[in-house]
Task: structure prediction
Amino acid sequence: MTFSLVARCPRTGMVGVALSSSAVVVASRCAWSRAKVGAVATLHITDPRLGRLGLDLLGAGYPAPAVRDMLVAAAGQHADWRQLAIVDTVGRTATFTGKLCRTHSVAAEGEGCASACNVVANERIPAAMIAGFMRNPGEHLAERLMQAVEAGLAAGGEFMEERGAGIHVSEQHAWPIVDLRVDWHDRPVQELRRIWDNYRPHMQSYVARAIDPSTAPPISLQGAKAKAG
Result:
């Protein structure tokens, strides 16, 4: 019940995932990325353990296709219920859709990106997401991922009403520079766009605060409540 895309930016080396679903808290269970390692989407009847294991295997140097095969093996008897999309640190991609995934469970791979979707309105959604992602290659990876999700929604989106969405992007630090989530919302993709547009101007400031506070812009107190007396 999700449409997703994993990707790497060849210009910056960033990796990330974006997705939307009718399922609650989808991004916390399905979107995984790690700096200088890669990104994984774990979908359909989701096992979040595969996301963390996938990143560990990518970090050990295995390419995306090999990681896919190892994750399928790790899923064992439950593999046919699972769906995966993987991109590694040099942009190799891989997908998997188990035989028990429901109607319109489809996937596609592009240059440095891969889309996996299940229970979507039509089989064109993965190609639409890849086209949306490739439209503006000079943009920030998170913006390109946002455009991919918007393209998937415009192409028909999920079979049911979307309720959640998220973007997870890692750059070069031990934490993601973008980790935005919308849960149980009537228009989650549109709300994710609003949040990203508001967060983007401040993103590097938050990174600077962690790396070298002396270079970070001062915290604005505009809008703070005035204290009596």
